[in-house]
């Protein structure tokens, strides 16, 4: 590989566990830095993708209008898009609210739940509108690869990244596929 | 007298009269993926995971009788792809959020998905609204994860003699119903020691206060593939059924 890969990451409706798992590849980060440079990512604090991104890693599902906007923009810039973790793949824990009407969720969280003081539903122009349901990202954009797990282990992420950096078709052995 | 044979993936397999293809395969140590089949019960044939090609036609191995000269294809890329699609459909038709499920690691649906190399569900999720029943002191019924295999129906009817469960409705409106005036589990004679309370291959019927007993990494399918586990457990049952 002559030119360095450009990688970007983003977090939508997730808990940052997948980003932590990426950092958990520990000293292999140095090997990664040899072959890849980071563009937009919460780790670099770059807010928008540059023109050419080879690899985009998405953590989290879609729970509000901003998530959808961010995902669409991200997809536009990334040659290869990867859904990382349960939330990006199936909505994950945030999707537990899908059984419950949005109105009831808001009521429980902000108006009549236990221990609430000064009950009010947050309403500010800066707050993105909530979607009725939480959705995985493949329902909105094309996804090229999926890394299952909550979060996928550091080894899973590493196997995927090192395969890709070496120009191999990424593949995950059974031991690296986990849904929990 | 020579025993009758069929072929599975080109290998001659003996069978005894009355055996299904699944039973002949299991007795010979060949794994055919399955979910609604459990050798302790009469076959049901609903999940279609066990689809094999018999002389060129797709059939459910768990219900199809073994016969002389059958040429059965089982472990092929095409059939495993089909099985993966069926498994993906089972995931999107229910609410399967493994990180929050007590059955994770011990669940046959999850293990089937691991076995078949499923990394995503491919289809849009249905997120169906399904009722949870926590009324029973010892048993939890979380319909979110029911795959309509009817194992609980068969166990309750045929082993426990209590007829606690049935599947009601059709197609996407199918749901597991409970046979009591209130429709609640608490008003049935089911007990935590019943077969029906322990047979569910997924986390839909759970005995309470047992969750997360074994840490992640040490659970059943962390240690064995579904194929290993099935063959080890099911082979002796098949042998004794047809002695
Ligand atoms: S029943 Fe199995 S597949 Fe469904 S959520 Fe639980 S562990 Fe996952
Ligand atoms: S509750 Fe479990 S055993 Fe009963 S039909 Fe559903 S998945 Fe099968
Ligand atoms: S195992 Fe044969 S159809 Fe389910």
From TrEMBL, chain A:
Signal peptide (residue range): none
Name listed for the protein in its UniProt record: NADP oxidoreductase
Domain of life: Bacteria
Alphabetical UniProt keywords: 3Fe-4S, Iron, Iron-sulfur, Metal-binding, Oxidoreductase
Cofactors that this protein relies on: [3Fe-4S] cluster
Domain annotation NADH:ubiquinone oxidoreductase-like 20kDa subunit: ranges: 15-163
A GO term, aspect molecular function: 3 iron, 4 sulfur cluster binding
Automatic annotation (TrEMBL), chain B:
Family from the record: Belongs to the complex I 75 kDa subunit family.
Any one GO CC term of the record: membrane
Assembly information from the UniProt record: Composed of 13 different subunits. Subunits NuoCD, E, F, and G constitute the peripheral sector of the complex.
Principal place of residence: membrane
UniProt-annotated location(s): Membrane
Protein name: NADH-quinone oxidoreductase subunit G
GO molecular function per UniProt: 2 iron, 2 sulfur cluster binding; 4 iron, 4 sulfur cluster binding; metal ion binding; NADH dehydrogenase (ubiquinone) activity; oxidoreductase activity
Residue intervals of the 4Fe-4S His(Cys)3-ligated-type domain: 78-117
Cofactor(s) the protein requires to work: [2Fe-2S] cluster; [4Fe-4S] cluster
UniProt xrefs under Gene3D superfamilies: 3.10.20.740, 3.30.70.20
Protein's GO biological process: ATP synthesis coupled electron transport
């Amino acid at each position: 590989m002559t030119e360095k890969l450009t990688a970007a990451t983003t977090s939508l409706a997730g808990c940052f566990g997948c980003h932590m798992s990426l950092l958990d590849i520990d000293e292999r980060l140095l090997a990664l830095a040899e072959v890849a440079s980071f563009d937009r990512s919460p780790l670099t604090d770059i807010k928008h993708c540059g023109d050419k991104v080879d690899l985009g890693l998405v953590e989290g599902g879609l729970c509000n209008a901003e998530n959808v906007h961010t995902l669409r923009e991200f997809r536009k810039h990334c040659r290869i898009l990867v859904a990382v973790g349960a939330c990006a793949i199936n909505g994950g824990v945030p999707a537990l609210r899908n059984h419950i009407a949005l109105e009831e969720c808001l009521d429980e969280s902000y108006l009549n739940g236990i221990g609430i003081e000064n009950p009010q539903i947050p309403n500010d122009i800066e707050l993105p509108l909530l979607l009725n349901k939480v959705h995985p990202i493949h329902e909105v954009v094309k996804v090229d690869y999926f890394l299952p797990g909550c979060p996928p282990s550091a080894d899973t992420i590493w196997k995927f990244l090192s395969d890709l950096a070496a120009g191999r078709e990424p593949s995950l052995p059974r031991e690296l596929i986990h849904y929990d | 007298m020579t025993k009758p044979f069929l072929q599975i993936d080109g290998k001659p397999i003996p069978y005894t009269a009355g055996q299904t293809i699944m039973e002949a395969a299991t007795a010979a140590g060949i794994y055919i993926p399955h979910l609604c089949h459990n050798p302790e019960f009469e076959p049901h044939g609903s999940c279609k995971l066990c689809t094999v090609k018999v002389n060129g036609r797709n059939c459910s191995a768990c219900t199809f009788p073994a016969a002389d000269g059958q040429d059965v294809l089982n472990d092929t890329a095409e059939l495993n792809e089909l099985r993966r699609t069926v498994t993906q459909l089972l995931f999107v038709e229910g609410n399967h959020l493994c990180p929050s499920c007590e059955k994770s690691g011990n669940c046959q649906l999850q293990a089937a998905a691991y076995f078949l190399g499923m990394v995503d569900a491919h289809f849009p999720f249905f997120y169906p609204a399904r009722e949870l029943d926590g009324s029973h002191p010892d048993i939890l019924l979380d319909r979110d994860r029911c795959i309509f295999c009817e194992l609980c129906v068969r166990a309750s009817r045929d082993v426990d003699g209590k007829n606690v469960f049935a599947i009601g409705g059709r197609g996407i409106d199918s749901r597991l119903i409970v046979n009591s005036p209130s429709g609640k589990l608490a008003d049935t004679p089911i007990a935590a020691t019943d077969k029906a309370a322990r047979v569910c291959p997924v986390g839909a019927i759970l005995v309470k206060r047992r969750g997360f007993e074994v840490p992640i990494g040490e659970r059943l399918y962390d240690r064995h593939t579904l194929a290993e586990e099935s063959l080890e457990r099911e082979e002796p049952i098949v042998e004794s059924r047809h002695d």
